[in-house]
Specification:
The protein has about 170 residues and is α+β, with helices and mostly antiparallel strands. It has helices at about 35-50, 55-65, 65-80, 85-90, 95-105, 130-140, 145-150, 155-165, and strands spanning about 10, 15-20, 80-85, 110-115, 120-125. The strands form 2 sheets. A 3-stranded antiparallel beta sheet has the order 3-5-4. A two-stranded antiparallel ribbon has the order 1-2. Helix 2 (about 55-65) runs antiparallel to helix 6 (about 130-140) and helix 3 crosses helix 5. The longest helix has 16 residues, at about 35-50.
């Protein structure tokens, strides 16, 4: 936007546009003037994680499964053993869909599904050795930070780490 197209705005030679009250005007795609700063930060975080740093496709290609299956596999690998219904709860899905995910993981040799000895109607899902290796591979891929984050100076990373700790504390 040019100065002429921004009524009641002043532009600092070295900074962003300012509105009539001296506050910073929004800039960039999809950011409206006067928009809450928290919304802008949240949008930026989502973009960094879900667009610029998205590694889900890589996980799918390397493991040969959908990302939903990879997420189910990682959950089972972390827990060691889960019933289909508990796995569905953890994945925020329903039991029939979770059963389909588990079927795909069983076919690939990543998990086993066996009857629960205490309740034969219930099925237990356990990771296999191949499944544990695949889950570790997925974790390594997903834990690789995007270049924009990796390239930050150590002091900025420490500040961001402190902020994230604060934001993630209930």
């Amino acid at each position: 936007m040019t100065d002429a197209s921004m009524p009641n705005a002043e532009r600092d030679a070295d900074g962003p546009a300012r509105d009539a009250e001296g506050g910073e005007e929004a800039s960039g795609p999809g950011i409206a003037a006067g928009e809450d700063e928290a919304v802008r930060v949240w949008r930026g975080l989502r973009s960094l994680v879900l667009e610029r740093g998205d590694r889900r496709r890589e996980v799918c290609e390397v493991l040969g499964v959908s990302f939903a299956m990879a997420k189910a596999l990682r959950t089972v690998a972390e827990e060691g053993e889960l019933s289909i219904s508990l796995l569905a709860t953890r994945l925020l899905t329903d039991a029939p869909y979770t059963s389909l995910l588990v079927d795909g993981l069983v076919k690939r040799g990543f998990v086993t599904r066996t009857p629960d000895p205490s309740d034969r109607r219930r099925k237990l899902v356990r990771p296999t050795a191949d499944g544990l290796r695949a889950a570790a591979t997925a974790a390594a891929i997903l834990d690789t930070p995007p270049p924009a984050l990796r390239d930050l100076p150590p002091s900025d990373l420490a500040t961001l780490s402190n902020l994230l700790t604060h934001l993630n504390t209930p």
